Amino acid sequence: MVSGAIALLAGVPSAATLAADSEPELTTIRAPDRVPFSTCLPQAGISGAWELISAADGGVWGLGEVLPGPDEEGKPLASARLVVLPRHAPGGTPDAAVESEKPGGAVESEKPGANETAALIRLSKRIDPAAAVFQWKEASDTTLELTEGTRPVLAYNFGVITRDDVPESDPRRSRSCYVHPLYGLDGEVLTDDFPKDHYHHHGVFWTWPHVVIDGKEYSLWEDRGPLRQRFVRWLCREAGATAAVLGVENGWFLGDAQVLTERVWFTVYRSGGERHIDVDLFFIPLDREVTLWGAEGKSYGGLTVRFRPRPGEKPRITVADGLTADDLYETPLTWADFCARFGEGEVGKGAAWSGAAIFISPSHPDYPPTWLTRHYGPLCVGWPGIRSQTLSPGKPVHLPYRLWIHRDCPSAEDIETVYRAYCKISATESKAK
Prior knowledge:
Elements: H1 15-19, E1 27-32, E2 37-41, E3 49-54, E4 60-67, E5 80-86, E6 99-101, E7 107-109, E8 116-127, E9 134-138, E10 143-148, E11 151-157, E12 161-162, E13 174-175, E14 178-182, E15 204-207, E16 210-213, E17 216-218, E18 227-239, E19 243-254, E20 257-269, E21 274-285, E22 290-293, E23 302-306, E24 316-319, E25 322-324, E26 328-332, E27 335-341, E28 353-360, E29 370-373, E30 378-382, E31 389-391, E32 397-407, H2 412-432
Antiparallel strand pairs: 1-8, 2-5, 3-4, 3-8, 4-5, 6-7, 9-10, 10-11, 11-14, 12-13, 15-23, 16-17, 16-22, 18-19, 19-20, 20-21, 21-32, 22-31, 23-30, 24-25, 24-27, 26-29, 27-28, 28-32, 29-30
């Protein structure tokens, strides 16, 4: 089950029962009403998107949609899951009257506190499939793009991207299996790809500088040597009214021999004044051990977001202790946020500030992991850090994260409020397993 899901559903009626217009049974969902989440739906026969009605007052409590998700190995669940947008979560209010259009087509929703609420709800009327706001589109034979309405969200580069401005002799000239661009809420590009200072940085990516297989060491981080990530197949590609889901299976290859299966799932929730994206990484060695560790003295190696702030202006990196003046090395963190002006323009003028945070799920191995933060662009989650971790054949390792994309530069207290709401969902899920 994905990080952020809770399993407190009971007595959900079948589609046949609903079609007969009988009163659906009630279901208790206890979760923060500030953030979207998903939960296992073990009963078959439910499909589509629904309004969730509160039994207490008959009002709309939120939206729910049945969509695929990963199991504990990153394979598609045999049963579906319910993606839930509480009324007060970004994008979760079906009543357009409480949303206001901002310049650029952005939508901002009301933002109450991250209180945990217990709601006795029922599935009500189906939402017209035509109401789906997300769309996946293959922009080329290497890139899959996601839009929400008219707004771009992200592009996943499943094929090999080659940059002609990188010297032909440099092994970092080509790369696949990463996200770029990642967009802000007003269409600004947040990430960088093949930057001249570090050709091996690629938007949102997950690689390690030290990988040992059969006693030989490789660098997946800088693509030095024969070890490469390659796309294998799609596991899921769904676009709905509440969320878009993408499941991908990649492989780590030494030449033509695959040594590890990598499964990646993105759950992109409908946005309002902010956007939530769950990123679930699964790694399973095939027939031999794979040992990983990060860079000495820095710990990078794992999920990394390389931002592209406007040149000449210093970005702001915020962690739970507050705004940081210096870069952090080998520092345990539960989250970190990168805020800047993005895009071209005169220094100090033009674009508004915006950014994104990486949230670590409490179910993450060795929680909280160590990080490297750099004001020139990268946020690097370092797992397992500088101490090596050996992955055994057939035993999956799950690394769960959430990206939180926002306008302006929120304070540490404001970010912590959103993070704690996310953690409550993860903690509830752990108890339910």
